[in-house]
Amino acid sequence: MTGMPEYEVFAVRYAHREAKRSDHFIGGDPHDGPMPMDYFVWAIRGAGRVVVVDCGFNAEVAARRGRSLLRDPVDGLALLGIDAATVPELVLTHLHYDHVGNLDRFPAATFHLQEPDLHFAVGRHMRHAHLRAVFEVEDVVGLVRMNYAGRVRLHDGIVGLHPGITLYPAPGHSAGLQFVQVNTRRGMVVLASDVSHFYENMESGRPFPIVVSVADTLESYDCARAAAASAAHIIPGHDPLVMQRYPAPSPALEGIAVRLDVAPTGVAPTGVAPTGVAPTGVAPTGVAPTGA
Ligand SMILES: [Zn+2]
After folding, report:
1. Which residues lie below 8 Å from residue 140, measured CB to CB, with a gap of 6+?
2. Is the pTM of this model over 0.85?
3. For 126, which DSSP code?
């Protein structure tokens, strides 16, 4: 790792909803039961840089969609010492409502998105209610306006954003979904976002039901695995287990944010975790297996 910066990586939990297992897997689940969902934004800091990944939804959208907004995502970032007003770069993993609802709160940011996601969100498929349900038209139009203001970088492929921070297209859940690979003190961490909503989607090879392409979703699981130092370095986009497996940056942030650049609590060091072992195989003591 000579010369490559090692970054701090954070997840901020900003919303929550109650749900059932059958909500989260194509074809349902034979052992249906409660399976709540968390909502996150992420931040990368180091080498004099701050990169925020996604920006959550706002209170109005939370109320309309029946989600429990735990805190304004911008306030959550502020608790980490990150001022949205000065953040220079915001990576948008995709344009679904729970990832891009606060673009206007980042007045200094350049937005990074894979171009196919924008094309899909303004294209012919949006006449279908089923496909447009996961978008907020004002968010999409807002991004178009940002593009006309010269503030959007639309990519089509792998992007070396900075040394140690790389964006990878991983379509399936959305047409232009991307994940973020970050070099940390424990090796390459993958902020998978909605490549895998829960650990269990990837581990069991059963995609989340909101999909543009099931085939691409399954291929993108492997792309995320290949980019991570181990399976324990992959961070799913909506899994409450993330808050259990990783430590808070400080006692004051318990239950609000976690650090992802340090090993998950109780998990064997990556040096002894065989490559390709599913995270459940190294689940920390006291945490129920995700398949339970
Ligand atoms: Zn999402």
Report:
1. 95, 118, 121, 122
2. yes
3. G
Query: CA-CA distance, 60 to 14, in Å (whole number)?
Result: 14
Taking the C-alpha atoms of residue 217 and residue 20, their distance in angstroms, rounded to an integer, is: 21
**Strand, coil or helix: 202:** helix
CA of 43 to the centre of ligand 1 (A): 16
**Gap from CA of 37 to ligand 1 centroid (Å):** 10
Dihedral of the alpha carbons of 132, 138, 141, 147, in degrees to the nearest 10: -120
Q: How far is the CA of 99 from the centre of ligand 1 (A)?
A: 6
Task: Calculate how far, in angstroms, residue 84's C-alpha sits from the geometric centre of ligand 1.
Answer: 20
Gap between the Cα atoms of 21 and 23, Å rounded: 5
For the stretch 155-198, pLDDT in tens is 999 999 999 999 999 999 999 999 999 999 999 999 999 999 99
The Å distance, Cα 271 to ligand 1 centre, comes to 31
Q: How far is the CA of 1 from the centre of ligand 1 (A)?
A: 32
CA of 97 to the centre of ligand 1 (A): 8
User: For residue 257, which of 53, 69, 10 has the smallest C-alpha distance?
Assistant: 10
CA of 40 to the centre of ligand 1 (A): 8
Side-chain half-sphere exposure of 131, counting CA atoms within 13 A: 14
How far is Cα 218 from Cα 211, in angstroms, rounded to an integer? 11
